[in-house]
Amino acid sequence: MEVSVLNIKGQETGRKVTLNEAIFGIEPNDHVLYLDVKQYLANQRQGTAKSKERSEISGSTRKLGRQKGGGGARHGDINSPLLRGGGRVFGPTPRDYSFKLNKKVKALARKSALSYKAQENAIVVVEDFTLEAPKTKEFVNIAKNLKVDGKKSLFVMSETNNNVYMSARNLQNAEVMEASLVNTYKVLNADVLVITEKSLETIDGILNK
């Protein structure tokens, strides 16, 4: 699949790049996509939710009433979950939600996500660029020139570029990410991928093994 290379003004440079069929042209595997997205979201969870159980409540352990003859149900101490202010039954406790996925599964998931974007013609290849200073207005103009403004876009850079990152940081529908850090969730969550030429080489080097 050939894609024209654009400059930051949205004009064709006259060059074309061929997207690697082994990465951008495979039959997507929906199950591994599900697993990889599930792992990513699970890893974002803090797992710090906690409620106090009966043994952790600060209160007297004195038996409230006698065992029999009260005319109602038996009562223990005031920390009972049945009473207001008592402990909680089977409440949440701190836990680790993360789980392991094999490297080959994660690689297949990223290839599947990229292949979906290629099928949707949602990949824009732009020549490598940088900004002299962090300017959101300048970044917005680039997005407009590439006709991705108003869409949820993921700009994939070949290396860390603080000026470009800072320029896009306040924009709700734009995100800048280094090519080596691109993951399945970010690709699927974006409406369009804007990839620089060198980023394609980085992605090929990582996934084409």
TrEMBL record:
The keyword rRNA-binding applies. GO terms for cellular component: ribonucleoprotein complex; ribosome. Keywords: Ribonucleoprotein, Ribosomal protein, RNA-binding, rRNA-binding. The keyword Ribosomal protein applies. One of its GO terms (molecular function) is structural constituent of ribosome. Signal peptide: none annotated. Residues 45-85 are annotated as: Disordered. It holds the Pfam family Ribosomal_L4. One of its GO terms (biological process) is translation. It comes from the Bacteria. Belongs to the universal ribosomal protein uL4 family. Forms part of the polypeptide exit tunnel. One of the primary rRNA binding proteins, this protein initially binds near the 5'-end of the 23S rRNA. It is important during the early stages of 50S assembly. It makes multiple contacts with different domains of the 23S rRNA in the assembled 50S subunit and ribosome. Part of the 50S ribosomal subunit. This is Large ribosomal subunit protein uL4. The gene is rplD.
